[in-house]
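Q: Predict the bound structure with pyridoxal-5'-phosphate.
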Amino acid sequence: MNIKVELNDFRRQWETVEHDVLDAVKRVGVRGWYILGERVSSFEASLSRAWPMTYCVGVGNGLDALEIGLRCLDLKPGTKVLTTPLSAFATTLAIVRAGGVPVFVDVDDSGLIDLNKCHSVLSQRSDIRYLLVVHLYGHALELDVLENLRDEFDLKLVEDCAQSIGAQSNNRSTGSVGDVAATSFYPTKNLGAMGDGGALLTNSAKIAEMAQVLRHYGQTSTYVHDQIGLNSRLDELHAAVLDDVMLPRLSQWTARRRAIAERFLMEIKNPCIKFPLIPAGSCSCWHLFPVLVKPEQRPAFVTHMKDRGVMTGCHYPKLIVEQRALTGCGYRFEVSGELANAKRFSCSEVSLPIHPFLTDEEVSHVVTCCNAWSAM
Ligand SMILES: *Cc1c(COP(=O)(O)O)cnc(C)c1O
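A: Predicted complex:
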């Protein structure tokens, strides 16, 4: 058998979208308007309707969406922001770039930030009133709990939804509890562009207006600059492709990811491969499919899969607090308590392929390879 199972398969995606993408590109060319035109507005309207949130502001990437989101919440230099050590580095990078000081708290058995620990930190530390959470792997944090936390401590709250487009917690969309939801259209994300892109979603008109100013040089009207802004705009081309081609297919792609996850959960039966907890009430969009193996067995498992044509990933092999950009460059950060669970994930997590273009045979092959693995 000569099966190759990739973590992502953009060639197969292209086969299904080629015709529609070329049409969308052509319409942008014919119109002759490339920056902040009607395609960006129309995609923003479509995404805010689909999410649903009142306002959507397209930006250059997910990192900028987070940074702009924090700056819209009036983050002053030196302000502490409670966050997770287990995420894409961009989550923390946004805090640092916005002038904040990250404070790391451990994750729970799902790999997502431990909301109980957040509660105890916030109870003891009145100097921390900003919270940046990540709906990691596409799993939704418990939004009721998050909402109570927000209200009890009067938090400014940003939800990093780069991995959680389409995920719900008890039928509420991720991003709907925070002041700001930030997301990414990096090609591997569930809603990927053919390049970089991102968006910030909010129910606040004031935040949306500020985000529009910040993404566009801090310009409030032509040649009038009231803020030190960024150049972080979503391109018309990306917006057109997202709006006409990718977003209309998202629910079908998410359904496929969910069906594959269902099969993995039912059919992978190997005592050496464990599934992390899924937060209560979460209807995941399965951006990733994480499993846990013993740290000392992980390299052998990865090799076993690779030898059988199955590529795997690791999210994430090194905690954000261990990255030299943070530890070795004089930036301030704090760690609240032990990060035992985060460390456990960083040395035992393996991500199985779960993109929507996997065939049933390939899914079966991944299952077979997992079940055939013996850690001895
Ligand atoms: C991808 C990702 C980001 C960053 O998005 P970019 O568009 O690559 O800047 C931030 N947070 C998380 C959780 C991500 O997965």
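A: The longest helix spans residues 236-267.
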